[in-house]
Amino acid sequence: FAKIDLHDKGPKGDLLIAIAGPFTHIPQAAAWFGLFLWASKGDMWYYSYAVYLNQLEENFPAVLFCSCTNLNICLFCFHMLPAYPLGGGHALGAIMLMRKVDKARVATVVAKSGLVVAVLLCINGVVDMILWDNSDFGFWSFMIAFIVVWYSTALFKRVADRNFDGHPIFYSTREASTNTVAAPAPATATNAETFELEGGQVATPATGRGKNKSK
Fold first, then answer.
1. Does 65 share its domain with 92?
2. Of 164, 20, 187, 161, which is closest to residue 106 (Cα–Cα)?
3. Euclidean distance between the first and the last CA atom of the chain, given in angstroms as a whole number
């Protein structure tokens, strides 16, 4: 997707770029689920979010394909969260720009949405670490929340400075302005140039007068 340059298509092209990555997980999840149905012979007993040792012993391929299906579903949902720098946050900004929303308001909405997602990630981290005794998932939830807060703070700073140039969310709008080519200035004659007029006369720009052309 890096070789597909859609930025010059405006915010709509930016939206397509933002959702292209997350949406690749949908056909992958469908393919893995098809393999799961083949390995399990249609027995949904093997399909679960958690992996149990007795399932691994009975039908390892089915459990593996089930885990791959769940992984792609989780990745799709995660990347579509409306928090920058995730694809969902980028898509939210592109949709608002398509509706001609002011850049400052776009940045503010995306930043506030990111803070809400960061709070939810922190709550999820606490639940994982305390209730489910899963410190690994809890740690990564806090790390992702920290990154989202960092980028949201940077967006708030750009709103305060009224400086949106160079930010990826507004890249398509910058491209649109730089791709605008100014109309060429009309050609002007120098003092040394002459123009032939009707009746065999020539005019010089310096004097604007006509005189007979020498034979």
1. no
2. 164
3. 68
In Å, how far are 164, 195, 196, 208 from 192, measured between CA atoms? Answer: 48, 10, 13, 12
Q: What is the pLDDT of residues 11-58, one digit of tens each?
A: 888 888 889 889 999 999 999 999 999 998 888 877 777 666 566 667
Q: Are residues 106 and 188 in the same domain?
A: yes
Domain range enclosing 19: 1-80
In terms of domains, do 4 and 94 share one? no
pLDDT per residue over 125-147, tens digit each?
888 888 877 777 888 899 999 99
User: What is the pTM for the complete model shown?
Assistant: 0.71
Ramachandran region, residue 100 (left: φ > 0; alpha: ψ -120 to 50; beta: rest): left
Strands of the 195-196 sheet, one edge to the other: 195-196, 201-203, 210-212
